[in-house]
């Protein structure tokens, strides 16, 4: 079997309480990483932690935990960026240096499921390695600024967090002509993990048991917003890497525009948006739907 050579870059936050407001952080990175661990056609060359859903001081040990306890082979883990790119004071980190060394030896697919800061720093420090990146698979983007990321039915809109937290990293990928695959809210909003799915996972191995247990509070937060399950955003990126035939995509053009902030009610608040359509822009692969029978395939891949 031909292996896909993959590097994972994640703001892993499974089970962590939020640092700036009450509640718990996202668990979907854990699902994406576990799915890649179990994919027979994937060879993981490294995992880099990045800030995002939680701080780097939390994301790094969580990445170490998943690699040491749930991976079927030894995978090195590196500490990456703890804040977004500041063009006036660029500094590298151990994750960027490790990724650079890996790319010198092997072309890689990068699954960047947090802010793409480590990828952006790599392109700034080692622009000659851009040709060694087969593609970067990210969770970001939308078609129109009015395509809200609605969480539940009580009026809460989420931001395009991975993009919002480091816009410069996306500009850098476009500038360096890196192949970009976007798995936005549009596709993840069509996939649900519910209580019966957690029950099924709880009967599985140690990795499944851990994810099922740590997902309880996250599921409850979504139920509090009027949903009966949660969207596992990042797992659409991992599934695209494993089997793109299960993911429906099209070629669009991406660009960055400024529009009113849809996550607040302040009419004077604006922000950047990553918009994708047929107009002028940077060519990307835009994933927007899943194949028939997707949920069954997803659960099977997680419970392998």
What is the secondary structure topology, with strand pairs?
Layout: E1 4-10, H1 28-37, E2 42-49, H2 56-70, E3 77-79, H3 94-105, E4 108-112, H4 117-125, E5 133-138, E6 149-151, E7 156-158, H5 161-164, H6 167-175, E8 180-182, H7 185-188, H8 195-202, H9 206-214, H10 216-224, H11 235-242, E9 247-260, E10 270-277, E11 282-290, H12 294-302
Domain Inosine/uridine-preferring nucleoside hydrolase: 27-264
Organism: Cryomorpha ignava
Protein name: Nucleoside hydrolase
Walk me through the structure.
There is one protein chain. The protein has helices spanning 28-37, 56-70, 94-105, 117-125, 161-164, 167-175, 185-188, 195-202, 206-214, 216-224, 235-242, 294-302, and strands spanning 4-10, 42-49, 77-79, 108-112, 133-138, 149-151, 156-158, 180-182, 247-260, 270-277, 282-290. The protein is an alpha/beta fold and 304 residues long. The strands form two sheets. Strands 3-2-1-4-5-8-11-9-10 form a nine-stranded mixed beta sheet, sandwiched between helices. Helix 8 (195-202) packs antiparallel against helix 9. It is globular, with a radius of gyration of 18 Å. The two termini are 18 Å apart. The mean pLDDT is 96.
Which ranges are low-confidence, i.e. pLDDT below 50, for 5 or more consecutive residues?
none
Mean pLDDT: 96
Find the count of extended strands (DSSP E, 2+ residues).
Answer: 11
What is the highest CATH level, the class? Alpha Beta
Shape: globular
- Order the strands across the largest sheet as they lie in space: 3-2-1-4-5-8-11-9-10
User: What's the number of structural domains?
Assistant: 1
User: CATH architecture, please?
Assistant: Alpha-Beta Complex
């Amino acid at each position: 079997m031909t292996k896909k050579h993959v590097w994972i870059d994640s703001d892993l936050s499974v089970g962590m309480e939020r640092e700036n407001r009450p509640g718990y952080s996202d668990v979907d990175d854990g699902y994406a990483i576990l799915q890649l661990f179990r994919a027979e056609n994937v060879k993981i060359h490294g995992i880099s932690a990045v800030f995002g859903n939680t701080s780097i001081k939390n994301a790094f040990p969580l990445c170490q935990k998943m690699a040491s306890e749930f991976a079927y082979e030894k995978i090195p883990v590196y500490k990456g960026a703890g804040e977004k790119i500041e063009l006036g004071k660029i500094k590298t980190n151990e994750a960027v240096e490790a990724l650079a060394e890996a790319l010198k030896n092997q072309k890689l697919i990068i699954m960047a499921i947090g802010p793409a800061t480590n990828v952006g720093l790599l392109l700034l420090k080692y622009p000659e390695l851009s040709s060694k990146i087969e593609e970067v698979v990210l969770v970001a983007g939308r078609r129109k600024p009015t395509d809200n990321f609605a969480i539940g039915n009580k009026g809460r809109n989420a931001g395009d967090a991975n993009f919002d937290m480091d816009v410069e990293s996306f500009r850098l990928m476009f500038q360096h002509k890196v192949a970009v695959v976007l798995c936005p809210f549009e596709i993840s909003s069509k996939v649900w993990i519910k209580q019966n799915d957690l029950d099924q996972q709880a009967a599985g191995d140690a990795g499944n048991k851990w994810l099922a247990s740590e997902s309880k509070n996250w599921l409850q937060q979504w139920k509090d917003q009027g949903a009966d399950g949660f969207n596992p955003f990042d797992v659409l990126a991992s599934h695209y890497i494993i089997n793109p035939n299960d993911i429906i995509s099209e070629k669009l053009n991406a660009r960055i525009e400024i529009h009113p902030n849809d996550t607040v009610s302040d009419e004077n608040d604006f922000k950047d948006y990553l918009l994708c359509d047929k107009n002028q822009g940077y060519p990307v692969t835009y994933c927007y739907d899943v194949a028939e029978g997707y949920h069954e395939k997803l659960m099977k891949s997680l419970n392998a």
